[in-house]
Design a protein that fits this description.
alpha/beta, 8-stranded mixed beta sheet, two-stranded parallel sheet, 40% helix
Amino acid sequence: MTAITTTLVVGATGATGKHVVLQLLQRKQHVKAVVRSKQRLLDSLDEIVPNVSKEFADSLEIQEASLLDLSDEDLMELTSQCDATVSCLGHNINFQGIFGHPRRLVTDATKRLCNAIEANQSKEKEPTKCKFILMGTVGVPNPNGEDDKRTFGERFVLFLLRYFLPPHRDNEMAVAYIHGKANNPNLEWVIVRPTELTDGSASKYEMFSKPIDPLFGGDRSVTRANVAQSMVDMILTNTLWEEWKFKMPTVYDLN
């Protein structure tokens, strides 16, 4: 029988985040979520499975807030007693979301959440291990250099994205920050890098240590539900977590 865990999910109303919340609830886990609109989250869950928000109401704790507006003390309270934190934060795909503020949404949220977790651990005689999962993209290379070398054309496009598309730079900075947290053995992390995202239900998926398709024109994709499933599986399956912790797996639908 799977132990009951508590997971904090940020970006919970997003296209992938809502699946993370739903699948954790369906697997009888407790979930905390920080969202700007509680009703929007409840509605998004019910759009996937009708009336599911009422079914699992006792297992879902929702705080209405803008994450970066919360104080350090608020974030410590949020992450307290959590076994895992999942960040599915991203920028809205519109002009304001891409070029407006906050330009470092993912990076700043990642730093502040990790700081809150570590602040809580510093108060414990025997610090409790916490899992941190960051949703990235195959467009962000692994800082350890183990990804296959991209073609000249791919590297040129990524160069342009890095300097002219703030969300891409934000994702790279968040990954670089998390990748440097391996010095804390009690804060274990995984950066999940999905390939081209599609809508659809959860099914079978597979993970690799690096991208297996070209950046553009590949024939592989992954549903957002499967990305969520990979995260939930790692949270709840110790052997899977041990396999991927401190790594940056890529995720694909199983063809």
